[in-house]
Amino acid sequence: MDSAVGRGAGARWLLLVYRLPREPSRHRVAVWRKLKALGAMYLQDGAAVLPENDLTREQLEWLQLRVREAGGEATLWEATPNTTAEREGLEEAFRASREEVYAEIVEAAGRLRRKAELGGDSDGMLEELKKLERDFRAERRRDYFRSPRREEAAEALRGARRVLVDGASSRGGAGVGEVS
Amino acid sequence: MRWATRRGCHVDRTACAWLVTRFLDPEAEFSFFGDPAEAPEGAELFDVAGARLSHRGDDCSFETFLVEYEHLGRDATLREIAEIIHDADLLDERYGRPEAEGLDAIIRGMQLASPDDHALLRQTGPVFDGLYAYLSREAP
After folding, report:
1. Contact criterion met (CB below 8 Å) for A15 and A65
2. Which of A34, A56, B31, B44 makes an SS bond possible with A50, Cβ 3.0 to 4.6 Å?
3. For B73-88, how does the pLDDT look when each residue is reduced to its tens digit (9 = 90+)?
4. pTM as predicted
5. What sequence ranges are listed for the domain ChrB C-terminal (chain B) (predicted)?
6. Chain B touched by A58 (CB under 8 Å)
7. What pLDDT digit, counting tens, does each position of A69-104 carry?
8. Measuring CA to CA, how many Å separate B113 from each of A28, B88, B106, B123?
9. Which of A2, A65, A141 is facing B49, going by the closest CB pair?
């Protein structure tokens, strides 16, 4: 029941407020890295926000525990921005924060596709494509408000894969033909 | 015996419940609570902050079960499943298990389609049975 409310994007937010001892720095880095992987946004130092859903709630609960185990303090809050304008601003900031990676994927996939059209080391290119696809899935997971560039990136990856896979099989076929 | 964990189970808790029923306590009964303060008295808690059977360091709860119950930790197939659960639960690609992403999607989908955690466990049990059977084909 609780979680159903949070599934609609932007319904509720979770706010992790934490403080960690300066040393050793590895805890601060680990927490920062985890928040970054989740796509959280820092409102200010030691205060990170995420839209609420089952996944973000669980991940932030473990993170809170982790901060405490590292000798820090952490509290986890449910929150709603006070005004519609504030909420929209926050959602827009989340959307915008995903755009850079999507744009990089679009560009890299386009480059790969053009390279594939010229032929060459298709195994190497396929590995490169798989990495881009992995990056895309990770980005999509933290794209809570559906950045408009997501579909563009997905299409660029599909295009590159089509050329790579079809190209490889048709060249393979031609190779067999040449023997006769 | 009664076992209890937080409501809204995902991959780690459903996998732990499967592990309990299949390997530790076939008669296990499960309770689910919202706030840890509502946990039933005398129940063995799992995947709950501060419990014996929970996340430990960088490990997920399923991995902790294999440490706490040594005979389970000696099962190579369970150790493999633990890697998959870890990657699906913590999303840190520690073991680079490709099954993790698919399993994450399947369990999340089942969660959306299930009215409650009891119903969810009835569905996820056979998924882990299948995973266990598949991985044990070639277990040493």
Report:
1. no
2. A56
3. 999 999 999 999 999 9
4. 0.80
5. 3-134
6. yes
7. 899 999 999 999 999 999 999 999 999 999 999 999
8. 38, 19, 11, 10
9. A65
Contact A7, A53 (CB under 8 A): yes
Task: Looking at the structure, give the CATH architecture of the domain made up of residues A13-80.
Answer: 2-Layer Sandwich (3.30)
- Name all contacts of A90-93 with Cβ < 8 Å and 24+ positions apart: A90/A13, A90/A41, A90/A49, A91/A9, A91/A10, A91/A145, A93/A41
Domain assignments of chain A as residue spans, ordered by start: 13-80, 86-170
Q: Nearest by CB to B8, which of A3, A37, A141?
A: A3
For tokens 């099989």, the residue is A169
What residues of A are in contact with residue B108 (Cβ under 8 Å)?
55
For chain B, how many structural domains are there in total? Answer: 1
**pLDDT (tens digit per residue) in B46-71:** 999 889 999 988 899 999 999 999 99
Contact check, Cβ <8 Å, B10/A54? yes
Expressed as residue numbers, the domain containing B80 is 2-138
Q: Is the pLDDT of residue B18 over 70?
A: yes
Tokens found for residue A18: 């934490």
The rounded distance, in Å, linking the Cα atoms of A54 and A62 is 13
Rounded Cα gap, residues A84 and A94, in angstroms: 15
